Amino acid sequence: MPGAAIIFLLMAVSLLYRPTVFDSFIADDFLYLNWANKVVQHPELLLEKYWRCEQKWSADAAFLLFYRPFFYTVFLLEYKLFGFAARYYHLVNIAIELLSTIIVGLIVISLNESLPNSKRLSNIQIKIWALLSSAFFVLYPLHSEIVNWITSIVDLLVVFFILLSFWCYTQWRIKSNRAYFIVSIMSSVLAFLTKETSVALPLTIFAYELFFCDDISNDAQISTTKINWLKRVKKSLITTLPYWLILSLYFCLRTIVLGDLIAGYPDSVCYPTLAGWLKGLTIIFIPINTLTIGTHSYIFKSWHIVLGTVILLNVIAIFRTKNDSRKIIYFLSIWFLVTLVPALKVFPNVMSSFNGARLAYLGTVPLCVFLAYGLAVLSKNGRISFLARLTTPIFLVLAGTILYTNNLTWAAAGRWTTKVVSEIKGCCQNGVGDPLVYITGLPFSYRGIYCIVPLAGIAQEPILAKDVLHCVRLDGDEFSCSPGFIKDNIEQAAAKRMKLLYWDSSSETLKPVEFSNCNKLRRQWRGEDLRQIMRVSALSGVNQPDVHVLENGTVEIISHEKNNTFIVIELNLPDLPCWYVDFLALRMRFVDMKTLGPYAQIQFLFTNKIARDYSKNYFAYNNCSLSIDLTDKEQKLIFPLRNQAAWCMGGKCSNAKIVLPIKNSLRISELFLPRAIELMPQVKLQTLSYDPPGQIRLDKEYNHRQCITYDACGIKDCTQVILQAVPFARSFDNSNVGLKKSPFIEKRVLNPSGRLYMRRDEFPMETGVFKGRVVAVDKTNRPIGFPSDTFLIFVDS
After folding, report:
1. What is the mean pLDDT of residues 706-718?
2. Nearest-CA neighbor of 674 among 602, 789, 584, 579?
């Protein structure tokens, strides 16, 4: 590439990635910092990354399994050089991005050189194509995550090695210089040791050989027999055989080390759907964080128009190109599809414009080369050359603007994460010993950017001065107990070192959970008392319903709409202490229930100090939904709030409302607050005073058996109980209908109260974390009420 082009790219990178050089870590960065700090003291841990798996693979595993030893080597080197100076990590990411950008331009030149002289673009066109391809790549807005997230150096490295290997291969085929082939093989090995994305490399090189081998080798037998694809495939396979051998050895090594050929994300978190694929593919072409740049903004609309124009110009250029010269376009299309192969399992679920963009990072190479092709071909001596010349700078300016805006958002997310970490430090380090720190309401993301990892990654050395082993969030997917166990154990010895905190979104600080006085807690409302605390309204544009009290004390709500609609019942429950309210229930009867449809639901929404409005605020879910039985008889609808952290840790309930469907009318006879003992089995675990509540441990030496005391006598019609256990990554089914899928362990006891025992030999081949619960059952073997609080079972973990 000419020196002027490189200077232009350097200036563009320096300007648009200036916000990226922020001194903050985000999300998984903390986990790798913990690991690097341990490896400095124990270097043998790095060698284990090459030949040993840390965890046993299981289809229900809650952890992720990857084979990326070279990435760990590079990260450890960065840690030794930079320590906690995050800005230098970002500078390294920018440097690798720039190196890949240069190789993109070189690949474009190699593709053109792979064609016969008569089919190549002119010197001016190829220079424009190479320059635009590199410029589009370095300015493409989808790259914000890859460059701004320190951990994504794994994606930068693997793409750099893939591009270097591919370019060296093209140079070897064009110039027959064996040195290029050696560098290509070495780069491919490093790519396979860096990330799974490398499996796309042999397919890419094979596609290149398949399309260009006849032009490169000038094989008359193949070139004259255009339809003889079998000979092409055979020759291409033989030529690219070293890369397929490396791929085979790589899969063998993965199988030996990880115990599984694919590994990666557990199947329990992968739900590939057509809608997910279409959404992910759309994001590749429209890489805009809509939380920062709204869908109604001029930038958002302009991107669609300009991108559509660029694609249209490419179509025109392709039609003007001779059939023999279109193989570059065919190759780029196949290359783009090949880049998605390594992400087949998770692409529909993970891909987004602000998190998950790393999955499509390699795919942006053929995409940017393709987008630049039409502009380069039509920029010289054509009727529409003016349109191509006008569209090019507009596209570059738009891409740069979106990229710069995304980088600003990442920088702001970094500063916000630093503030959160500072709050956690202040709460965890002030205390003697190992405190139990439970946090709720803490956002997972900032403007859509995933920022906070499991808190165990932050509450360790070197982030903190000492390890805090029991610092978890109660409303996330971490290994935490149900809040109900904290309620039951708040007066015990473990509570002396227990800290219950919530994230105050208004001041962006962690504050202690407040416990209100419950001496005057009212648990029942009927008749006129019920009417006084209710304010009924309909959705906007709908006639308001009538509300009155019948002689029997039932509150009747009458709708004036001909069709089904929804009403909102706002509840005036002043100073209701959330901590002491486990359930909220309604006795009600619907009229013409069958017309509401089989999926009718009722929702309870609330606000308090954690959830300050009715929306889902930073993943602190402040709503509870129930399905309605298709019957015209009176039914009891119970909202389980006991283990909803955003409810019980939020102080007093500020506002509450119930949203429910209605046809003609409905009648509410009672609103009440049931006690937990009436609806769910009470469970006590055999734990030591210093253990966290809601956890038991099983091992083969000291704790080979643990006792679980249960009491379901308060549940009407309960005659027996069932103990159920599943791996942590799996979910129990709906709380009051049991499991659709058989649990890992199930024990039945023919007494409503007593003791149960869990033994280590019940998990003969398994280790890890499991979830357990006790379900009450009636004499017909039907689950009744709600299951007990969910407890954790650590098996040799």
Report:
1. 92
2. 584
